[in-house]
Amino acid sequence: MQRRYVSIWFRQLLSDWQLIRRPELSEIPFVFAAPDHGRLLITAVSPLAADAGITLGMKAADAKAICMGLEVLDDKPGRAEKLLRGLAEWCIRYAPIVATDEFSKDGLLLEVSGCPHLWGGEKSYLKDIVSRLKSKGYTVRLAIADTPGAAWAVSRFGKVTPLIPGGEHPQALLALPPEALRLDEVILARLRKLGFYQIKSFIHMPRSVLRRRFGEAFLLRLAQALGTEPETLMPVVIPTAFQERLPLLEPIRTAAAIETAITRLLKVICDKLRAEGKGLRKGILTGYRLDGQLIQVTIGTSAPSDNAAHLLKLFQLKIDQIRPGLGIELFILDVPRVDDLQPAQEAIWSAKPGLDDGSVIRLLDRVAGKMGPQSIHRYLPATQYWPERSIKNTFSVSEKRICDWRTDLPRPTEMLAAPAPIEVMALIPDHPPCFFIYKNTQHQVVKADGPERIEREWWLDEGEHRDYYQVEDDRGRRYWLFRSGHYGSDQPFKWFIHGFFA
Question: Where in this chain does the entry annotate a coiled-coil region (predicted)?
Fold first, then answer.
């Protein structure tokens, strides 16, 4: 497929932004200025100020002398970049890859291959982008061509149609000035000195001559515009490997229409996942509203799934969270996390126990969708001796344990995340406690078993060993206590409670 690129030039980005916020300034000339070595220099000019002869880079004091009643506004560092990024995210509705213009800082570059036909062709595509941005208050110029460099050049310097047919971008560049190649001022000064005021004056000269006079950077920019050297765009939002877009001919607002749109997206994305042997673990549905706002809902699965019906049920739990406003005109379904699907095996008995049963997994997904994934916990044994490191939490039901649970010695059914200090009265040297105080409550010990010594894993950290005791108080409650260190050592010993038995 032939690649196509769109360049969007915001001719007066900051002044348009200010006029959107303060429409009363439409009758007043104003500029933005920022300090530079003790001077205020103009960084953005409104249309009325430009008509008065004020230009970028002029001193604010000189500008006031030229234009009476000029309003000078403070320009904050990074304001234009932040505004441009917001516009880039808004433009993702037109193409998955949208990048900010790193050369001039006042435009966007879109890779639109395969997108214009959704709007009825490139002409309608450009018209829709222009009309939508103008309706928001921005003055823009657009162009579409086979390379980012050619689209950039035509959008800023072209005097012909902004729609450059495939393969005709070299001819579209010929009559443009050298500035259209995104060259720095030093190279441009050399070109003017030699009388090169159009690209056609030097485009057919030998590369060795051009390299000797203007350098390698000049040749790179020329080659990028012509398409003989690739140019990589850095998107503001990196698209996922599995993504599906659904532009809507008419904005939708009802829950039934939203469900229909989700069904269509899931059918396509699940076919793609199935073809790659993958299953969805996390899905993000983004809706683009008419008012420019974005809405998002996210689902997750306990195991990889390519079952569109099951995934639809998870999204149905979230539909009431989607606020369509005046209407949603585009849906994008991203699958940022996938796992390999385990091929189903034929068996005489279809019922499978525990987490191998697909119905159990689907139930867990629905519970997580209603109550949140944090409400479901699964634990596996870890190959560690230290009790608090011997258990790990996992969010995947397909993960297998790498070791067996320890069953040769009893372990508490509930273990504290961190041992809690207690006060103990115990005989020495290795007798269990006679009583202990935990949370200001005294517990009289009537039965005890131990000690079980657990050595610290010296290759992970340093410290004392632990002597664990199982104790039962006079009310029949059982606890897991330990003494850190031992009597007679140089280090003081302490007692802790670590768990509770059923």
Answer: none
Which pLDDT score, from 0 to 100, does residue 368 have? Answer: 76
Report d(CA 353, CA 344) in Å as an integer: 15
Residue appearing with tokens 């039934």: 256
According to the CATH classification, is domain 243-354 in 3.20.20.20?
Answer: no
Sole residue written with tokens 């664990």: 468
Q: Which residue has the tokens 């340093």?
A: 462
Query: CB of 321 within 8 A of CB of 252?
Result: no
Nearest-angstrom CA–CA distance, 324 and 289: 7
Give me the pLDDT at residue 491, please.
Answer: 63
Q: Is 31 exposed, middle or buried (0-12, 13-18, 19+ CB in 10 A)?
A: buried
Question: Where along the chain do its domains lie?
Answer: 1-30+93-239, 243-354, 414-500
- Residue 152 and residue 158: Cα distance in Å, rounded? 9
Q: Which CATH superfamily is domain 1-30+93-239 in?
A: Reverse transcriptase/Diguanylate cyclase domain (3.30.70.270)
Buried residues in 376-411 as b, exposed as e (16+ CB within 10 A): eeeeeeeeeeebeebeeeeeebbeeeeeeeeeeeeb
Torsion on CA atoms 326, 327, 333, 336, rounded to nearest 10: 0
Distance CA(330)–CA(94), nearest Å, equals 9
Distance CA 451, CA 311 (A): 51
- Contact present, 336 and 243 (Cβ < 8 Å): no
The number of C-alpha atoms within 13 Å of 169 and in the hemisphere containing its C-beta is: 28
Strand boundaries in 20-101, DSSP class E: 30-36, 39-45, 71-74, 97-100
Residue 488's SS3 state is coil
Question: CA of 473: how far to CAs of 77, 450, 452, 466, in Å?
Answer: 67, 15, 19, 21
